[in-house]
Design brief:
With 275 residues, this protein is α/β, with parallel strands linked by helices. It has 10 helices and 14 strands. It has a single domain, classed as Aldolase class I (TIM Barrel), CATH 3.20.20.70. The strands form 4 sheets. An 8-stranded parallel β-barrel has the order 1-2-5-6-9-10-11-12, surrounded by 8 helices. It has a two-stranded antiparallel ribbon with strand order 3-4. Bound molecules: zinc ion.
């Protein structure tokens, strides 16, 4: 089995300071948390940014500052979000910053009280931009139909295997985080693909445990969950990373270095400088 790649998602677009006072919001805070998570064993950082009021933002200058501060200190793989309300803005992290990876939400779904819309036209456009800019898509899958959407884009030549999937389970409005659902998703992707899992909220740790045993990879962080254990908030995203390192150690699965992760994901051999 390959070493397990830990992705840290420090901030997200929806988590609030009311939920946890430890949430990093400014570019400097986000970069500090990414660096601490890299020191703890994370090989990939999934990045969202916020405005000074803490609201979800697509401002490319905030992304640029996070990227610069991180790249000054470590070579962690950067995976920038392409989520957000406006399609023209969502695409900018890919076209303007050309990170090694970016999220690619391969369909639409209800999430809490909003609808996360990823129209077929937008997905074609995003896939084309990722291909043209050499950005590896992290194909986020909330339901099995999303896999078919991705495979249709493979047929059109817009997504190129080997594909990397990120299963999102336990989000309110989408597929529940059950072992059966995870197994079904893993069995539904093309052979040769890599996969990782996000368990939202209390399902973060059990889904991570399944991925470690099954040969998948793991995402943790305050984008998805704020509790380290029942009633105990994580004081840093690095706490979640350490929890996975410990769990994987108990199960005797090694942790991927950044170099391992680049090889497993088919990326380049070193960080791509973004300034
Ligand atoms: Zn995200």
């Amino acid at each position: 089995m390959e070493p397990v790649i830990i992705t840290v998602a420090t901030t997200g677009g929806g988590t609030t300071r009311e939920q946890t006072p430890y949430l990093p919001l400014t570019p400097d805070e986000i970069a500090d948390e990414i660096y601490a998570s890299w020191q703890a064993g994370a090989a990939v950082a999934h990045v969202h940014v916020r405005d000074p009021q803490g609201r979800r933002s697509s401002d490319i200058e905030y992304f640029r500052r996070v990227v610069r501060l991180v790249q000054e200190r470590c070579d962690i793989i950067l995976n920038l979000t392409t989520s957000g309300p406006l399609d023209d803005e969502r695409i900018l992290p890919v076209t303007d910053l050309r990170p090694e990876m970016a999220s690619f939400d391969a369909g639409s779904t209800n999430l809490n009280d909003w609808v996360f819309i990823n129209s077929p036209a937008f997905l074609e456009r995003l896939a084309r931009e990722m291909l043209d800019n050499g950005v590896k898509p992290e194909i986020e899958v909330f339901e099995t139909g999303f896999i078919n959407n991705a495979l249709a884009l493979v047929k059109k030549g817009l997504l190129r295997p080997p594909l990397h999937f990120q299963f999102v389970l336990g989000a309110p409005g989408a597929a529940p985080a059950t072992p059966k659902n995870l197994l079904h998703l893993v069995e539904s992707i093309p052979s040769g693909s890599t996969w990782s899992v996000i368990g939202v909220g209390r399902s973060q740790l059990p889904m991570a445990a399944m991925a470690i045993v099954m040969g998948g990879h793991v995402r943790v962080g305050m984008e998805d969950n704020v509790y380290l254990r029942k009633g105990v908030l994580a004081e840093s995203n690095a706490d979640f990373v350490r929890q996975i390192v410990e769990l994987a150690g108990s199960l005797q699965r090694p942790i991927a270095t950044v170099g391992d992760a680049r090889r497993i994901l088919g990326l380049g051999t070193s960080a791509r400088a973004i300034i």
